[in-house]
Design goal:
The chain has 345 residues and is an alpha/beta fold. The chain has 2 domains: 28-148 and 240-281, Bacterial extracellular solute-binding protein, family 7 (D-Maltodextrin-Binding Protein, domain 2, 3-Layer(aba) Sandwich), CATH 3.40.190.170; 152-238 and 291-344, 3-Layer(aba) Sandwich (D-Maltodextrin-Binding Protein, domain 2). The protein contains 12 helices and 11 strands. The strands form 2 sheets. The chain has a 6-stranded mixed beta sheet, sandwiched between helices. It has a 5-stranded mixed beta sheet with strand order 2-1-3-10-4. Helix 5 (176-184) packs across helix 11 (301-323).
């Protein structure tokens, strides 16, 4: 009897172990790689919560591990190829790091195309994706595209109220459109990774930077600047476009129910929320700077008009640039402005 019991128990144990192994085998583990630190709102308030929602929607069949700070190796401009080559499964990256690959998406970065609402621009990108943008996302499957709140001006010790105030200064820029904006304002663009910015500001390697308020807390920008400048009604000087994308082959290998889990958490409601996440992060960031004693300058409509006059040629410069790639930039600018206006109502 005891021997029989032992045999039955062993059989049951083997069966349960088999079920456990089967369940483990069904779990798909994915790696999401990005360039900012774990304290950045993009990591803690967007990428991690989104990953958790996808996991929940999948019923536990998907597990996403998020790796910040380029923890899996390489440099930020290499992220897109890491995804395309299958080195990682998922990435969050700046399109402008490899602007030559995403010229159409660049339209949303232009000054006074993106205005003052990350949510409206996110929705415009989503609305225009199939007709205008899809062709350039080869080798990856974008889950969602978005922008940040827009480029504001941070200055070490120079108050800026007109374009001439920037003349001859060195400004950190995020992308080539940012460089064009700075050049149009008479300053010199300096490219560098975001984590290097605090030291560059403290040592006056640069006199200021084009970057949103949300980066103030994680990089302690309030400690190395005196002035933060933006236009009325949160008006900004262009923005930066981002993508969260999966390796195309990896996406194609997923069963339909898991694709649905990703899509259900990456749709219109989510990109609206992403815009709101950025707005809240902006409010917190500028509040921290003001609390530290920095001066928050909001330009008047008249002051902003002087910047607009200087920056409108940047839009035409971009139109001329992409024409050489067979892209109708003027049509893209028109469509982007119309869609952003539509979603701003």
């Amino acid at each position: 009897m005891n021997a029989r019991r032992m045999t039955i128990n062993a059989a049951v144990g083997t069966a349960l172990a088999g079920l456990s192994l089967g369940a483990a085998a069904q779990t798909i583990n994915l790696k999401l790689h990005h360039f900012l630190g774990p304290k950045a709102p993009a990591h803690s308030q967007m990428l991690v919560p989104w990953s958790q929602r996808v996991e929940k929607a999948s019923g536990g069949k998907v597990k996403i591990e998020v790796f910040p700070s380029m923890a899996l190796g390489g440099k930020p401009p290499q992220l897109i190829n890491q995804a395309r080559d299958g080195v990682v499964d998922l990435i969050w990256t700046v399109n402008g790091y490899t602007a030559n690959l995403f010229p159409r998406s660049e339209v949303f970065e232009l000054p006074f195309v993106h205005t003052n609402s990350a949510t409206a621009t996110n929705l415009a990108m989503r609305a225009m994706y199939d007709q205008y943008l899809k062709t350039e996302y080869k080798g990856v499957h974008p889950l969602f595209l978005h922008v940040h709140a827009g480029q504001a001006i941070h200055m070490v010790d120079k108050e800026v109220r007109k374009p001439d105030d920037l003349k001859g200064l060195k400004m950190r820029i995020p992308t080539r459109t940012g460089a064009w904006i700075i050049e149009a304002l008479g300053a010199s663009p300096v490219g560098m990774p975001v984590p290097d910015l605090p030291q560059a500001l403290s040592k006056k390697v640069v006199d200021g930077a084009f970057i949103p308020w949300e980066i103030i807390p994680p990089l302690k920008i309030q400690d190395v600047t005196d002035y933060q400048i933006e236009g009325p009604n949160r008006m900004r000087f262009g923005t930066t476009t981002f993508q969260v994308s999966m390796n195309q082959a990896r996406w194609d290998s997923l069963p339909a129910d898991l694709k649905k889990a990703f899509e259900s958490q990456s749709g219109e409601a989510w990109v609206r929320e992403v815009g709101q996440i950025w707005t809240k992060s902006e409010d917190f960031g500028i509040g921290l700077a003001v609390k530290a004693g920095n001066k928050h300058i909001v330009l008047t409509d008249v002051e902003l008009a002087a910047f607009r006059e200087k920056l409108e040629p940047v839009v035409q410069r971009w139109v001329n640039e992409v024409k050489g790639q067979g892209i109708d930039g003027a049509a893209l600018v028109k469509a982007a402005r119309e869609n952003i206006a539509r979603f701003s109502k």
